[in-house]
UniProtKB/TrEMBL annotation:
<feature type="transmembrane region" description="Helical">
    <location>
        <begin position="368"/>
        <end position="388"/>
    </location>
</feature>
<keyword id="KW-1133">Transmembrane helix</keyword>
<dbReference type="Pfam" id="PF06423">
    <property type="entry name" value="GWT1"/>
</dbReference>
<feature type="transmembrane region" description="Helical">
    <location>
        <begin position="200"/>
        <end position="220"/>
    </location>
</feature>
<protein>
    <recommendedName>
        <fullName>GPI-anchored wall transfer protein</fullName>
    </recommendedName>
</protein>
<dbReference type="GO" id="GO:0016020">
    <property type="term" value="C:membrane"/>
</dbReference>
<feature type="transmembrane region" description="Helical">
    <location>
        <begin position="37"/>
        <end position="57"/>
    </location>
</feature>
<feature type="transmembrane region" description="Helical">
    <location>
        <begin position="300"/>
        <end position="319"/>
    </location>
</feature>
<dbReference type="GO" id="GO:0005783">
    <property type="term" value="C:endoplasmic reticulum"/>
</dbReference>
<feature type="transmembrane region" description="Helical">
    <location>
        <begin position="400"/>
        <end position="423"/>
    </location>
</feature>
<dbReference type="GO" id="GO:0072659">
    <property type="term" value="P:protein localization to plasma membrane"/>
</dbReference>
<dbReference type="GO" id="GO:0006506">
    <property type="term" value="P:GPI anchor biosynthetic process"/>
</dbReference>
<feature type="transmembrane region" description="Helical">
    <location>
        <begin position="133"/>
        <end position="153"/>
    </location>
</feature>
<feature type="transmembrane region" description="Helical">
    <location>
        <begin position="63"/>
        <end position="81"/>
    </location>
</feature>
<feature type="transmembrane region" description="Helical">
    <location>
        <begin position="335"/>
        <end position="356"/>
    </location>
</feature>
<keyword id="KW-0472">Membrane</keyword>
<feature type="transmembrane region" description="Helical">
    <location>
        <begin position="227"/>
        <end position="248"/>
    </location>
</feature>
Length: 428
């Protein structure tokens, strides 16, 4: 969040437009007319956001805590200075919720896009890689955080009439096509796929499509979504501890389609429950009190976010110790509460940027925010290309750093230029 403040001072454009719903206006694309100036802005964002991220997740991983401490010291210094300055105006208060939600969503996507390639190199710390069965690592946050980040700002969370199941099926068509496209592409080039993650044929695009369709079929008000989600999660967890977990974690597979893709199919219950809980949390924290003043609403949202983040964290500890350990592979109840806790705390951290003078959304954040899923697809394509052309495990440290920097540069510039020309791919 401190990096976002630093880049905003170099940004020659106001990177977001007014939105009365406190969410990004997906129909208005406020890109600047000068491509050279916009490209220069993206370069500054790349310099102050993506390069430090690349270094602190690889060769400077041991210094990450020190870097975080220095960043918070800088934050507290700027926040203290702001206390003696003029109070923020009403417009700043109105936009601040949208601002930190955008930063939160984009940061999770940037880290996810970076890690899916970085993990293939030896310079990436092994403790940050995905766990096989039980446990937690940085990369275990990716898929769950993506579902949660979309849930809290979804149409359901904002109490906007949801699509019926026919419209949802039509809108998720591209996701299904992406899922089949990934199967064809990985099979055609004999690309190595970890079967234990989703199954033989299943992938995350199918999971997203399933969650979208199920949510549209059972269309309920946002304030009841958490109840339904909790019932689904408790029922699914009860099923797991009664023997389903042994079946899902075993290496034995039958010839039928369900057995071949057991991890992906059964984890739908966990991701659907996570999505529904995220919908109610988003409605309760950010979109359910539109009648309040902006300043009062921001303070209430801040308190709710941190309180719920701490409570879900404590619940995760209890579930992990007494019910079943956290497992991304099964998306069990402990994994759902872990995802909710860490994401709420991350949102709460970004809410602190309200105390930083001059803080605003960077051009890079705005570009990724308008094409979140498209950026994930693009990152997967580049990851596949790098792995097909490079022996990542034998790559030297210097070569790995330059490859990762080139990868993040290409992805960010393509997404930025697409945003400049108003190209948006939204289908979830």
């Amino acid at each position: 969040m401190v990096l976002r403040h630093l880049t905003s001072s170099f940004c020659p454009i106001d990177c977001y437009a007014t939105d009365k719903s406190l969410k990004k206006d997906d129909d208005l694309i406020g890109a600047p007319k000068n491509l050279s100036a916009y490209f220069a802005t993206l370069m500054v964002d790349f310099l102050f956001i993506l390069i430090p991220m690349t270094l602190f997740f690889t060769i400077l991983a041991d210094w990450a805590y020190i870097g975080s401490f220095l960043g918070f010291m800088l934050f507290f210094a700027t926040a203290a200075a702001k206390r003696f300055g003029s109070p923020p105006d009403l417009e700043h208060r109105i936009h601040s919720i949208r601002s930190f939600l955008t930063s939160y969503r984009v940061s999770t996507m940037l880290i996810t896009c970076f890690c899916i390639l970085a993990v293939d190199f030896r310079i990436f710390p092994r403790e940050n890689a995905k766990t096989e069965t039980y446990g937690t690592g940085l990369m275990d946050l990716g898929v769950g955080s993506f579902v949660f980040a979309n849930a809290i700002v979804s149409r359901q969370a904002r109490n906007i009439q949801s699509m019926n199941w026919k419209s949802a099926l039509k809108s998720t068509g591209p996701l299904i096509l992406l899922g089949f496209g990934r199967i064809v592409s990985t099979t055609g080039v004999d690309y190595q796929v970890h079967v234990g993650e989703y199954g033989v044929h299943w992938n995350f695009f199918f999971t997203l499509a399933a969650v979208s369709i199920l949510t549209s079929i059972i269309n309920i008000r946002p304030k009841y979504c958490g109840i339904l989600g909790s019932v689904i999660l408790i029922g699914y967890q009860s099923w797991l501890i009664r023997g389903l977990n042994v079946y899902l974690l075993s290496n034995e597979r039958g010839t039928d389609i369900i057995s071949q893709n057991k991890e992906g199919i059964f984890s739908i219950f966990g991701y659907w429950g996570l999505y529904l809980v995220g919908v109610q949390l988003g409605h309760y924290i950010f979109f359910g009190n539109n009648s309040q003043s902006a300043s009062r609403s921001n303070k209430a949202a801040f308190i709710k976010t941190w309180l719920l983040g701490i409570l879900t964290g404590l619940l995760t500890l209890l579930l992990d110790r007494h019910i079943e350990r956290v497992s991304r592979r099964m998306c069990n109840l402990a994994y759902v509460t872990w995802i909710a806790s860490l994401n709420l705390q991350l949102i709460g951290g970004f809410m602190l940027t309200d105390y930083i003078p001059g803080s605003k959304i960077s051009a890079l954040e705005e570009a990724f925010n308008r094409n979140l899923l498209a950026s994930f697809v693009l990152a997967n394509i580049f990851t596949g290309l790098v792995n097909l052309t490079t022996d990542t495990l034998s790559t030297s440290t210097i070569s790995a750093i330059f490859l990762l920097l080139g990868y993040t540069f290409c992805v960010s510039m393509i997404i930025g230029i697409a945003d400049f020309y108003g190209i948006r791919l939204k289908f979830w």
